[in-house]
Structure formats: structure tokens, C-alpha cells
Amino acid sequence: MVTLFQFPSSWSPMPNPSPFCTKVEVFLRMAGIEYQVAPWSPMKAPLGKAPVIELAGELIADSGCILRRLVEHFELDLDDHLTAQQHAVGHLVRRTLEEHSYWGLLYIRWIEDGGWRTYRSVIGESVPAMARPLMLPYLRRGVKQSAHAHGLSRHGREEVVRRVVADVDAITELMGDQPFLLGDTPTTYDATAWSFLAHFAVDEMPHPLVDAVRGNATALAYVARGRERWGGPRA
User: Fold this and answer.
1) What is the pLDDT of residues 194-208, one digit of tens each?
2) What fold does the segment set 2-74 form as a domain?
3) Are 34 and 49 contacting, i.e. CB atoms less than 8 angstroms apart?
4) Closest among 167, 172, 132, 134 to 152, alpha carbons compared
5) Spans of all domains in the chain
6) pTM for the complete prediction?
7) What share of the chain is helix, strand, coil (3-state, %, to 5)?
8) Number of alpha helices (DSSP H) and beta strands (DSSP E) in the chain
9) In this predicted model, what pLDDT tens digit does every residue of 74-108 receive, in sequence order?
């Protein structure tokens, strides 16, 4: 049994409000691996972040490392049919979403005041109630500093939207009319692609970036297809 340590959440649109936690949980469902969920804590976070899994007594952090270790441990063959070129495409899509588009999601939820008002209570579920008045502003300042260092949040809303929408448009152009990112069957790359596109598509904060993703017919169909298979909240 795999134990998945992730942020506690009562947020219903997705398994978890973190796209990285969602990525791992969706992969576990995709691969048919039995798992249980436990609250994340700094004591069980080798890198200080979520998600973390416990597998055969070993704690594994970082969503990419987690998926790689699961593939090795369970001898999964989800990607065995892919060509070297398809692996290259999947790698670039994953990097684009995790290292660039993700900061657009943070911009909506953490940087802009309206998004922060909407998501503050969801984010706060991972912080003890007595500490929230002090910890939440502190955490938000830290995210703002990280986003500024990354560079995307130095731009105004219009430019942030333009850049992230370009990511989504490029990815869906690569997909074309395929049901999944790289063809007729889902692969490990879909765990990332679906989780990030779905987070944009179901976001509760009215925002032109969310509207743009919802206006992309390919992205919306992909999100609906994945949600039906493995993307809904836990039963």
C-alpha cells in the first residue's frame, strides 16, 4: 500500500488544490495502484514540500521522482509504446507546465487580491487554525517573493495571461484530435498535462486566464475526458 502525504483539503473540484499533489494522485489512479492519503507534515517531507509518498518504508519527495519510483517499483508499462520523439514532446510539455504555466496559477490564487480572498480558506486548511492569522500572510509573502524571482509575476495581468495562454494553445495544438496527450492511451505525461490544465479549467476565481482555458475546446474536452476516468474528488 502506498501512502500519499499531501495537503489536507475539502476542496471538491479536484482531488487536491495543489496541481503537483493532483498529479501524483491521478497517476496512482491511472496505474491502478492501491493507496491511502495522509496529511502532509514537515516531519515527513524530505524537501519541505508536498507531495511525498511512503513506499516500502521509503519516503520519496518531488512529484517527478515519485512517478519515476512508482514506475520502477511496480514495473509499469504505461510509456513503453512511446517513441523517443514522443518522450521528448512529453518532457517538454511537462517542463512547460511545471516551470512556467504553474506560476500563472500561483498568480491567480496567491498574487492577485481577488484570488487570494477566494483561495485563502482552502490554502489555510494545511495550517493549524490558531496559527492562520500569522502564517497565511507569511506564506503569501514567501510565494510573492518566489514568483517575483521566477519573473512571470513582474509582468501585469495582461502579459501573464498572454504567456500562459500561449503555453496552453501550444500544448493543445500538439494534441490535435488525439484523446490524450500523446495518442489514444494515457501515459505518465498525462498525469502532469491533465492535472495542470484541469486546475486552470475548474478554477473558482473569475479570471481571463481561466476563461481562455475554458474557451479552448481541445483543452476542455481533454479535461472532461480525464475527469471522467480519474480526475474527480475522492469517494
Assistant:
1) 999 999 998 777 899
2) Glutaredoxin (3.40.30)
3) no
4) 167
5) 2-74, 84-231
6) 0.94
7) 65, 10, 30
8) 10, 4
9) 999 999 999 999 999 999 999 999 999 999 999 99
